[in-house]
């Protein structure tokens, strides 16, 4: 029987790159997004042109809300395919730079709602539907490992997400479902590097031992390996170009 995978935040960037990898491996892929209809339409056209007609479903649902999580669950389970992979990629990207003394309660609450509560309750919602031998994968961030004074809300939530991934390993052990996390840093997407100037970008590249930013496809390659490796469980793997090794 055909296997399926669900990836949140997957109409562009890292999520899209992971979806393409899984489609190429003959999984039926559910691609989720919250608001960007233009990206969803562009992705549909691209996937159809690549020959993936009938191999995917794009679902608009804001998984930071209870209603959106319900919509997504109904769409995925309604297809009747065994769900093998659940990839938690949707997140607030943490580009809002703010000093510690100026961070508001509302900013912290929003970041936790999107980056921690959303994946927590999404995994909870699909917990009984994951197939034996499947996997949950959190796309976290190296900023949840390395402290950074101007991204405290983002880094704090991503650190919590990593701890959540580790905490769920035993929860799913009897079900024979693995739980892992990968932690990217300095990956070129539609959101990064954004409007950063050349001087700042040069400094950022200089902090990476490889000397260049990563690509979404680099993260997708790692994600596929982690998802398919049956002995990988409870792992948190950085993919950060050797950040701060220089």
How much beta, percentage-wise? 15-25%
Spatial shape: globular
Strand order of the largest sheet: 3-2-1-4-5-6-9
Chain-averaged pLDDT? 92
Helical content band: 40-55%
Major sheet description: 7 strands, parallel
Residue windows where pLDDT falls under 50 for at least 5 positions: none
The beta-strand count equals 9
Structure annotation, total helices: 8
N/C terminus separation: 49 Å
Order of helices and strands: EHEHEHEHEHHEEHEHE
Query: What structural category do the secondary elements indicate?
Result: alpha/beta
Radius of gyration: 18 Å
Molecular structure report:
There is one protein chain. Helix content is 42%, strand content 19%. The protein has 246 residues and is of the alpha/beta class. Strands 3-2-1-4-5-6-9 form a seven-stranded parallel beta sheet, sandwiched between helices. Strands 7-8 form a two-stranded parallel ribbon. α4 (105-126) links the parallel β4 and β5. The longest helix is centred in the middle third of the chain and has 22 residues, at 105-126. The mean pLDDT is 92.
